[in-house]
């Protein structure tokens, strides 16, 4: 019998953590600043992926609480700031990439640029899709309770 998603995600949590630890150990043995930072950055991404898999375990194995309107407002406001920051960073790094000739610098800047573009896209997706989908408004609650009720708030039998 094949494994279910929860078991697969749990395995991936551990695999990503092991991979991250190995890269961190390797990066600590290297004195070259660029190679050291690239390996450490990849290790950080693996730790991030581990946290994503942990969140997926929760998502597929339990009921999630919804966001309040206030939480959505806070998230939206903060995400807007970060989206603006990512736009500025993408522009800045793009300009630097056009001006730099050193292939080592280009390599690192290209990695940063890719991350910034991905962060920008992800933040927009979170704001437009995930956060709103996980929100329950007061109107939603009242509609769920009363709109389809045959008694519309009166004592029903």
Number of domains: 2
Give, in order, the helices and strands: HHHHH
Query: What is the count of DSSP helices, taking H or I runs of 4+ residues?
Result: 5
Largest sheet: none
Shape: flat
Distance between the termini: 48 Å
Total number of strands? 0
Derived from helix and strand composition plus strand pairing, the structural class reads mainly alpha
CA-atom Rg in angstroms: 23 Å
Mean of pLDDT: 86
Portion in strands: under 5%
Low-pLDDT regions: none
* Share of helix, binned: over 70%
Structure report:
With 157 residues, this protein is mainly alpha-helical. The protein has 2 domains: 1-64; 66-134. Helices cover 80% and strands 0% of the residues. Helix 1 packs antiparallel against helix 2 and helix 3 packs antiparallel against helix 4. It is flat and about 65 Å long. It starts with a helix and ends in a 10-residue tail after the last helix. The mean pLDDT is 86.
Keywords:
single chain; 157 residues; 80% helix
Topology (elements, then pairings):
Layout: H1 5-29, H2 33-61, H3 69-99, H4 103-133, H5 138-147
Helix pairs in contact: 1-2, 3-4
In short:
The chain is mostly helical.
């Amino acid at each position: 019998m094949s494994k279910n998603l929860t078991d697969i995600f749990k395995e991936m949590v551990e695999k990503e953590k092991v991979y991250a630890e190995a890269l961190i150990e390797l990066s600590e043995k290297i004195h070259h600043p660029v190679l050291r930072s690239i390996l450490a950055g990849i290790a950080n991404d693996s730790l991030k992926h581990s946290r994503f898999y942990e969140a997926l375990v929760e998502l597929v194995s339990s009921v999630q609480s919804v966001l309040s309107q206030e939480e959505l407002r806070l998230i939206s406001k903060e995400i807007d700031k970060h989206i603006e920051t990512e736009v500025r960073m993408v522009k800045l790094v793009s300009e630097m990439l056009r001006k730099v000739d050193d292939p080592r610098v280009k390599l690192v800047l290209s990695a940063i640029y890719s991350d910034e573009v991905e962060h920008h896209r992800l933040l927009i997706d979170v704001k437009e899709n995930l956060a709103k989908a996980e929100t329950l408004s007061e109107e939603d609650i009242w509609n769920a309770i009363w709109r389809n009720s045959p008694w519309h708030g009166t004592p029903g039998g």
